[in-house]
Design a protein that fits this description.
Helix content: 10-25%
Structural class: mainly beta
Strand order of the largest sheet: 1-2-3
Length: about 120
Amino acid sequence: MKAKLASYGVHFVTGDVVGFSWQTILVPSVVGTVQKRSKLIHVHVQSGDGRVHPVKFGLCLNAAGAEAQNIARLAGIGVGEEALSFDLPIMSRFLFTHFYINADFMGVFRYKENVKVPYSTGA
């Protein structure tokens, strides 16, 4: 799949998001006035060698999983004004996995919100 996406011009970057850049734009309103708005234009990615690279984008998708709230805060979501003052409601949660072996079953049980789901190891 990665090769197929690369054939469409997708570039894969490995690193940590450390910030964003904004651009102030003027947006006409429905009542005829002009308002200043900030628009995200770059994500700053720190590569393995410690250098920070700005990556320009037209659309940014936050797919950071449990770290999505932290990335959103770097983009001003949850710390801004008006609509941006609301936090992204995604938080990391602990998921405990227990292994045990008996004569009848060898497997893994995951406990999540008091629900027990068996996973067979194939043994």
